[in-house]
Specification:
The chain has 241 residues and is mainly α. The chain has 12 helices and no strands. It has a domain at 14-74.
């Protein structure tokens, strides 16, 4: 019995060491093949959770590891994609885009998202569209990716919860004419207001992108004897929007 216990102990030790060696090797490979920091964290937690009593580790390590896994683990795309989705949510804000701090916050957030795309989130992000995909492709992706994704039926008129921004609002804010044209091709609506009561055309006007102002101005259908007054009222609405 004692010999069997010793044999099983050494076997478990050898298996654990092999697993650890494989894990370390995966982190030290060529740059394109080795794990990102989040990928390494995910693999390490899986190894520790599966082969070692976590209570033997320092409590702070256990708490951080379990909190990260609760937030990011067990979901499509692993830690990297889930971190990407969580950070992307910070792009939505109730504060007007007129404020420089909002524009700076967007720039900083997009830089973090680009790092995560390079760390392995990109393939999953492009292959598995979700409700924010069109918004994020306007801000991050090339026109080719946006067009391909919209052709698969991705919604292009979804409004963000806090700001009310559609992908078309974002394209206008960024002055991206090609993105605007692609969105309109796939049915983006020009007459959607955000929480500040603004149509996408308002942001193009604020940027001085007059070629976009013409493209984004909602069509006016004015008929009957009150056409002049209705046209004036509509024009005032567009100026405010």
């Amino acid at each position: 019995m004692q010999q069997e216990t010793i044999r099983c102990t050494f076997k478990a030790k050898d298996e654990a060491e092999t697993s650890i060696r494989d894990f370390i090797r995966s982190c030290l490979g060529r740059e394109k093949l080795r794990k990102s920091s989040l990928g390494a964290m995910e693999t390490a937690y899986g190894h520790l959770h599966g082969s070692i009593d976590l209570d033997r580790l320092p409590s702070i390590v256990v708490e951080v590891s379990e909190a990260a896994d609760a937030l990011l683990g067990g979901k499509e795309g692993g830690y990297v994609l889930q971190a990407f989705k969580n950070i992307a949510e910070f792009l939505d804000t109730i504060v007007s885009y007129d404020h420089e701090e909002v524009r700076e916050h967007r720039r900083a957030t997009l830089e973090r998202l680009r790092l995560l795309l390079r760390d392995g989130a990109q393939d999953h992000f492009l292959k598995h569209p979700y409700e924010n995909t069109a918004h994020l492709l306007v801000l991050l992706g090339g026109p080719k990716h946006l067009g391909r994704t919209l052709s698969l039926g991705t919604m292009c008129n979804m409004q963000w919860l806090l700001s009310g921004w559609t992908p078309l609002h974002l394209a206008a804010q960024e002055g991206k004419k090609e993105m605007v044209e692609i969105l309109l091709k796939y049915g983006a609506r020009k007459n959607v207001k955000d929480i500040h009561g603004r149509f996408p055309v308002k942001y193009a006007r604020l940027l001085g992108k007059y070629e976009l102002v013409e493209v984004l101005s909602p069509e006016l259908v004015v008929e009957g004897p009150v056409a002049a007054s209705r046209l004036q009222s509509a024009d005032e609405t567009h100026q405010n929007g």
